[in-house]
UniProtKB/TrEMBL annotation:
InterPro entries associated with the record: Ams1-like_N (IPR054723), Gal_mutarotase_sf_dom (IPR011013), GH38_C (IPR041147), Glyco_hydro/deAcase_b/a-brl (IPR011330), Glyco_hydro_38_C (IPR011682), Glyco_hydro_38_cen (IPR015341), Glyco_hydro_38_cen_sf (IPR037094), Glyco_hydro_38_N (IPR000602)
Record EC number: 3.2.1.24
The keyword Metal-binding is annotated on this UniProt entry: yes
Reactions catalysed: Hydrolysis of terminal, non-reducing alpha-D-mannose residues in alpha-D-mannosides
SMART domains xrefs: Alpha-mann_mid
Function description: Degrades free oligosaccharides in the vacuole.
Protein name (Swiss-Prot/TrEMBL): Alpha-mannosidase
Keyword annotations from UniProtKB, A to Z: Glycosidase, Hydrolase, Metal-binding
SUPFAM superfamilies: Families 57/38 glycoside transferase middle domain, Galactose mutarotase-like, Glycoside hydrolase/deacetylase
GO cellular component: Cvt complex; fungal-type vacuole lumen; fungal-type vacuole membrane
UniProt xrefs under Gene3D superfamilies: Glycoside hydrolase 38, N terminal domain (3.20.110.10), Glycoside hydrolase family 38, central domain (1.20.1270.50), Golgi alpha-mannosidase II, domain 4 (2.70.98.30)
């Protein structure tokens, strides 16, 4: 055994100083605190009700207060007096329209008065003074709470700050210059009788409190300190030492606080700072380098302002100024604060209505605190707008940004839109935006989306860097928990450890409050001081730098996972169908805009006297794009938005479009006459008629004529004429001079009506349903009655439609299981009997309150190679509650996937329910057609204004009408008119379907003209000619936005002085490489491939002799060319 010798150094025997004082005897036994009780106690400290408030911190919140209630019988004795004026007819006049002219009409008012009804406006003139003892106070606040939205103006009409009522934002800082002299001062408040989320039309609001007061800022700061420490005590994990330390210190603060001694507040704050750090009262807290750890969460302020939703556009215009000026006030006191705002339209409204506030915004944009973002005209829906519409969202948005701010946005900002089409990444890259932000997929009600930071890839292979803020909201309150979730819920931490936190009241506007900024300072102070169990948060970076940090850390995005195709929102599937009228008007507007730009381009090149009306076209596009806002076009707004704003706006747009198309055609010599007004003698001149085709391929068309022309062949009734154009000049359609070879006939055998044209044979039974559609050429039955639907095609089905919530937005899976087939026809009659068209008119009673009348028609053909389809034209009288009308086509097709037209391309979706991801797509969005094809044969369903569709098993199902009751009780009630067609075809999906869908949708090919008028048109219409692979389609022709000879509404530099330019948009419609040639009917000076902002990207060689250049396209590429004419 070895002897242990104590070491010789003194430590062995020395007693530590603590140990010297450590009592030998325990005379004061201490209990172990009970965690839950010590945690629950914390809320007592800041509660403003419950009985303890006079004994806890709230006792000191206010240092002094005066109001106008000193003498109820004599308002003049109060410190605040006010008078009010109600604007007539729910109008929303500007300050300058009310003050000073209408001041004599202002009447005295007092606290307790009520104001209304909903949507009314009340102006207040307020005269106030402070008690003499307050003159030297640095901070005097107005408290004003009427439970509704308000805006404070100075005496000159400059907006200063919003008040949102209901205890949310009820304080306004009185500028010291107003009260320092001790004299009375005057200011104004515009009261809007609505809350942040709209109002009821009969709602009245009580002016609950008005006062001036001096806040105790030390008490307020302690309140924020305690809030964050209390959250740490509640929300950190049980294994966290920081959690228990926070609880201990909070209890220590409560024990230190003395309600009889205000000075204890500062002692309490000192305790708080031992946990939160010494820098929490300034932005210096974000510069702390103590821990040297990288920032993990970037907090960015925003206030989502729905451009219309539970309020009209007219109120949004006021929400913008209220929200944004308030943010500028916060920026003045918080230098670290960065705020982003989207939607060029909103900036334009502000610039028009409040130019002074717009200048204040510009100042803060230059200082980097106010960051315009998004690059689109509005935060648009991306399911329903056409490809050209999406291009224009960016063209208008980015041009506004460049014109007014001097830069383009690099981020498409779309936090709240209801799903994202498979082409969005391509549009983004063509609009110079490599970044995309949303969070809406966190609303999925079936599957959890697996990514937060990833590459999102379009059908053409274009990608954007997408971030979905992990806190799953764009309206966070900047709570401790929001910061925590911004990393904790991040699903791509393997690749990247950054999250964005979007905070600020939103949807109805509002934005961050100073309280949120104070909380974020403390969250950061906490990690600086006690470590990083809470993610390290930073305020002061903008969105662009966030994305570039992600790129830097992920090998320029290459190490991030990729998601291909659409970001389908598993929610809000009813929005493809709700508010059918706005969808019909939108489709029509888009098609007429296309036609207008085409004919106006031709006219402006051909005629020296005609000027392309760029400013007018832009104004129409602005309104059309506005109506594509993500609650308007999807159909989720209140009634007044549609009735008072959207329908009138689009009605006017359509009238202007028709007028402008006629002006352009008149410049080309085509003047439509009121044919019915012609005398017999004059009408003889119209024996030779023609019409124009605005589509870039030759076509055949059976069109109505209002009188009997001698051109043959006509229909039996003499009301239709068969027109066709040639390959050489597809733009002029002339009547066929001979009889058509395959007339359409109708017959009746027993109870069955048969329509037949040599290619198709359609059997309609006594229920008015198609029991057989036989393709005579391909010897194939198209209708399959072997599945769930045993009755036939064009079977109307009425589904129960009672979603869990969100009436206008949602339709649920279980609705598919509760339905009734619309039964026997109440009447079937033969309407037309060939040879051009044969048709049946069928009446159905949908329910005791709704009816549908359908014309089923089949056209005669001049060649069996021509496209032949069965057309359906419906008139519906719709008066339902929570019902969904769809039409079914059971078809003899078997395939795993169906193709749905999307913007300039196709989205393929499963026709089975293998996985929950497949099931979730039980209702999807489709544009002009949906196609279900096998290798050898297929069926397309084409429509003129519908967007909801589904293909499963052997059923193709087009969604027609819904009847939700929220937020618009009257949604879709009334009369509807729409058309669709069933087109069976040999082989898989081909260009016949794409082109037939364009033709079926054409809105402007019904005007007929004297053939002699086509002289100029005949030449001019050959301006642009595409020859090449058939999958490439020339969709749009327009003049260049920056052409020097055109009047525009921007200050952007003109280009190519002395030249006119033509912009051509082409796309591959089916998904395959393509090559072709474009020939211009004028001398070419230069050709460029451009982006959708019409910025030149590369110069293209051309053949000067032929005025021709070659093009090449990737699968699903959207290509744009700018041709500079000599
Ligand atoms: Zn929204």
């Amino acid at each position: 055994m070895r002897e242990v010798t104590p070491p010789l150094h003194s430590g062995w025997t020395m007693v530590h100083p603590d140990e010297q004082t450590y009592p030998q005897l325990n005379k004061d036994p201490q209990f172990k605190p009970v965690d839950s009780i010590y945690e629950n106690r914390l809320k007592q400290f800041t509660n403003t009700s419950g009985g303890y408030e006079d004994l806890q911190l709230p006792k000191f919140y206010v240092k002094g207060k005066v109001d106008n209630q000193k003498d109820e019988n004599d308002l003049s004795k109060g410190y605040i007096q006010f008078t009010t004026y109600t604007t007539p007819n729910l109008s929303r006049p500007l300050f300058k329209e009310v003050i000073p002219d209408l001041l004599p009409e202002f009447k005295p008012a007092r606290v307790g008065d009520s104001f209304g009804p909903g949507w009314s406006t009340h102006w207040f003139e307020i005269k106030a003074k402070v008690p003499d003892s307050w003159n030297k106070e640095k901070l005097v606040l107005l408290n004003w709470d009427a439970g509704n939205e308000g805006l404070v103006y100075d005496k000159n009409g400059l907006p200063l700050q919003a008040l949102t009522g209901s205890s949310e934002r009820t304080e306004f800082t009185i500028p010291p210059s107003w009260y320092e002299s001790g004299k009375e001062f005057t200011f104004y408040i515009e009261m809007a009788c609505n809350g942040m989320f709209g109002t009821g039309s009969g709602t009245y609001y009580t002016l609950g409190s008005v006062s001036l007061f001096i806040p105790n800022m030390d008490a307020r700061n302690l309140y924020y300190d305690f809030w964050i420490m209390g959250d740490a005590a509640r929300e950190l994990s049980v294994s966290s030492g920081q959690k228990h330390k926070a609880r201990e210190l909070c209890n220590k603060i409560m024990n230190t606080f003395d309600p009889e001694d205000e000075s204890t507040i500062l002692k309490c704050r000192e305790i708080a700072k031992s946990y939160l750090g010494k820098d929490i009262d300034s932005d210096a807290v974000f510069d702390d380098k103590t821990n040297q750890l990288p920032t993990q969460v970037y907090a960015v302020g925003n206030c989502h302002i729905d451009t219309a939703w539970l309020w009209p556009f007219a109120e949004t215009k006021r929400k913008i100024v209220r929200s944004w000026i308030t943010q500028i006030r916060i920026m003045e006191n918080y230098p670290e604060y960065v705020f982003v705002a989207s939607q060029a339209q909103q900036f334009k409204w502000l610039k028009t209505m409040h130019p002074d506030t717009f200048d204040e915004v510009l100042q803060k944009v230059h200082e980097g605190q106010f960051v315009p973002i998004g690059g689109s005209w509005v935060e648009n829906d991306t399911n329903i707008p056409s490809g050209e519409s999406l291009s224009r969202q960016f063209l208008l948005g980015q041009r506004f940004f460049q014109d007014n701010f001097g830069f383009k946005s690099d981020t498409f900002w779309l936090p709240d839109t209801f799903g994202y089409s498979s082409q969005i990444p391509q549009f983004c890259r063509l609009a110079e935006m490599p970044n995309f932000l949303t969070q809406k997929l966190s609303w999925n009600n079936i599957n959890t989306f697996p990514e937060n930071t990833f590459n999102w890839v379009a059908i053409d292979g274009s990608q954007v860097l997408c971030h979905m803020p992990p806190a799953n909201t764009y309206t966070a309150s900047a709570h401790f928990g929001d910061v925590k979730r911004s990393l904790q819920q991040h699903k791509n931490l393997y690749n990247d450890q950054h999250g964005l936190l979007l905070y600020g009241h939103g949807d109805g506007g509002g934005g961050p409050t100073t309280e949120m900024l104070e909380k974020l300072r403390r969250c950061r102070g906490l990690t600086n001081t006690v470590g990083s169990e809470l993610p390290i948060v930073k305020v002061g970076e903008n969105i662009s730098s966030f994305y570039s940090k992600v790129r830097k850390g992920t090998d320029n995005g290459k190490s991030l996972p990729a998601w291909n195709g659409e970001l389908y929102l598993e929610f809000h599937r009813g929005t493809y169908t709700s508010q059918a009228k706005v969808k019909y008007m939108m489709r029509t507007s888009e098609l007429l805009l296309r036609d207008l730009e085409y004919v106006a381009t031709v006219a402006s090149i051909q005629s020296d006297s005609y000027v392309y009306p760029l400013d007018k076209i832009t104004a129409i596009w602005e309104d059309v794009c506005l109506c594509q806002f993500h609650d308007v076009l999807p159909g989720s707004c209140i009634e007044i938005v549609y009735r008072d704003e959207v329908w009138p706006m689009l009605t006017k747009a359509l009238a202007n479009l028709r007028g402008l198309i006629n002006e352009a055609l008149e410049a080309l010599g085509l003047k439509e006459k009121g044919l019915e007004a012609l005398s017999l003698e004059e009408s003889a001149k119209y024996d030779q008629v023609a019409t124009l085709n605005t589509l870039p391929w030759d076509r055949k068309l059976i069109m109505p004529v209002p009188y009997e022309v001698s051109a043959k062949p006509l229909n039996a009734q003499g009301n239709l004429v068969y027109m066709e154009s040639t390959k050489e000049n597809p733009t002029i359609l002339k009547p066929l001079s001979s009889k058509i070879k395959h007339p359409a006939a109708v017959s009746k055998i027993d109870d069955v009506h048969i329509l037949e044209n040599g290619k198709l044979k359609v059997s309609v039974d006594k229920n008015g349903v198609i029991t057989s559609l036989y393709d005579l050429v391909n010897d194939r039955e198209v209708v399959d009655l072997g599945g769930k639907n045993e009755s036939g095609a064009n079977q109307y089905v009425i589904f129960d439609d009672q979603p869990l919530s969100y009436g206008a937005w949602d339709t649920e899976l279980y609705s598919l299981e509760k339905y009734k087939y619309v039964g026997g026809a109440s009447k079937i009659e033969i309407l037309e009997e060939g040879p051009l068209r044969s048709s049946l008119k069928i009446q159905h009673q949908i329910s005791s309150t709704s009816t549908i009348s359908t014309i089923i028609s089949l056209d005669g053909l001049n060649s069996l190679d021509d496209v032949s389809f069965v057309a359906f034209e419906c008139e519906v009288d719709w008066n339902e509650k929570y019902k969904f009308l769809k039409v079914e086509f059971p078809v003899s097709i078997t395939a795993d996937y169906a193709s749905y037209e999307t913007q300039f391309g196709l989205t393929k979706r499963p026709t089975h329910f293998n996985t929950s991801w497949d099931t979730a797509k039980f209702e999807v969005c489709s544009h002009k057609f949906a196609d279900y094809s096998e290798y050898s044969y297929g069926v397309s369903v084409i429509n003129d204004s519908k967007y909801g569709f589904a293909v499963h098993g052997n059923l193709m199902r087009l969604s027609l009408l819904r009847a939700p009751k929220y937020p618009d009780q009257t949604a879709d009630i009334g009369k509807h008119h729409f058309k669709y067609a069933l087109y069976p075809h040999k082989g898989s999906l081909g260009m016949d379907t794409v082109k037939t869908a364009w033709e079926f949708n054409s809105r402007s090919s019904t005007a007929i003209y004297e053939i002699g008028q086509f002289g100029i048109w005949s030449e001019a219409s050959q301006l642009v000619k595409y020859e090449g692979d058939s999958n490439i389609l020339l969709s749009n022709i327009k003049r260049g936005e920056d052409d020097a000879d055109l009047k525009s509404n921007t200050k952007l530099a003109k280009k190519f002085s002395g030249h006119k330019t033509i912009v051509l948009r082409l796309y591959d419609a089916l998904g395959g490489k393509g090559k072709g040639k474009i020939t211009i009917g004028a001398d070419i000076h230069q050709v460029f491939k451009v982006n959708i902002l019409e910025e030149e990207k590369e110069e293209v060689e051309f053949d000067a002799k032929k005025n021709q250049f070659s093009i090449e396209s990737r699968a699903f590429e959207i290509s744009t060319y700018k041709v500079v004419l000599a």
